[in-house]
Amino acid sequence: MLIWLWKRLSDGGTEATVSGRALRRFSGREIEGLLRAGVLIEQRKADSWPVCAHCDCGLDARPIRVAGDRLLACCPRDTAADATLEPDDLRRFGIDADRLISAMAASSGLQAATFALAEGLWLLGRLPTGMCIVLCRDTHALRAPAAKLAVRAAAGTAPVTIVATDLDPATDLQLRTAGLAACPLADCVRADEFGTERLAFDRLLPVGLAPPRLVLSRSRRSVVLDGRRLDLTPQMFALIRLFAEQAGQRDPILRKEAIEAQTGRPANEIVRDLRKALTGCGLPRASVDALIETVRGYGYRLGLSPAAWRGN
Ligand SMILES: [Zn+2]
Fold it and tell me: How far is the centre of ligand 1, averaged over its atoms, from the C-alpha of 55 (Å)?
């Protein structure tokens, strides 16, 4: 929801408002939370509604009437074009840019140091590598030399990446010339399994500095995948460890025969058990299939690069 609001703010400028109808896609709890945090500011309810598309009624807006227990946005030309509204559709919200950006920084796990650098330009925070992330609402803001200076001053000697909603090639080149890296917002947004978009900066990390996605601890017999701890039986732990170790070999495929020799069970059965155990830990089916890939005819392999796991 934060990213969605940010895009609205980028399109509509500081005066952007959103209607209750547009917010229908989000849960009431999310909306309440953002109202309480001051990210959304409730405004006066709408008393009219946009005219229907391609209407020749000549009105600027259509009146809203109460008909029984229904709310109708009435078209003077065609009753079939009347729109039935929910009471919440008439709510109107402004967006507090500074608070929205603080909330985005907090939800993306950055070391928050959020503040406005210039009109339409915010320091979002720092990655664990020290890189400063600057969020830019409108690339026009970056044309001013003062804006580039403000970015430099805020970052000090740290590397900077400017995340811009729309990044055109000319601005990108101009920023590179000024020693500032830029990245389109779309490259820093990932949707989770529920379709919720969040900021993710792993692509900005220099190779080798990215935190491992999979961490195996022999002493604690624990498996942590993308920050989520998975509770596995000793047998399943040994198997996933076998996969991880094979991933670092010249041939990353764990052969069926090797699995059978190590575990004394048919490979397809024990791999099915492992996948079931991973799903049972709350991993979505698609992630499990991507993590333990089937290599038809040969065996299985870990769907992670050797650099993406760490064990002790
Ligand atoms: Zn109409």
Answer: 4
